[in-house]
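sorry for the late reply, my laptop died twice this morning and i had to redo everyting from scratch. anyway the thing you sent over, i finally got around to it. pasting the sequence first so we're on the same page, its 206 residues, then the predicted structure underneath. double check i copied it right bc i was rushing
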Amino acid sequence: MGALVADRIVARVPATLRALVSMIVLCGAIGMLVEGRARILRSGSEVRLRTAPVDPRDLFRGDYVILNYDISMLDLASIQGDRDFSRGDPIHVQLTPGTDGFARPVGAYKIRPPASGADVVIEGHVLTTGVCPRAENGTVDCSRTRNGVRVAYGLESYFVPQGTGLAIERTERSRLEVVAAVAPSGGSAIKRLLIDGKLVHTEPPF
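ok and here's the structure:
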């Protein structure tokens, strides 16, 4: 009965007014998303991420560069934290800068741990469990265990200006570097994209 009354009330509102209200709500939602991402870019802690090879079929889609990272695959046996993750679980990955300046994972947790010193905690979700970990040389090693999990952080695609993606498409992933901003909440966004240490694209802080 209540729903029927509500429908009748809505039906009496002029269509133009309903469309205007819907537009205002949609613009407000988009504005909140944009401001949330801008806040991460402005105030988030910067981390350097080393990229890793991806399936060549997924290398470039239109004006989106598809990215994969060393931290996309975690060997749970070699880092601290929890072990029993399932597909779709949220995961909080503790990163610390290595001697080369690139972030490396030192822990993976179901509940966000406090960050200290130069460490940051980035939030993602588990894509796959029981995968083969990578060896130190970057190759997949299935001879040991299958304690690896594949993680997505929302940093896996990056929009580039039209017509500029071909050079990135043809660039070896070992030459690419991503600087990401990580908020205290764990949310992250790509801030800069570099090739051979030289700036290629940067995101404005708004």
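The chain has two domains: 2-40, 45-202.
thats about all i looked at so far, will dig more tmrw
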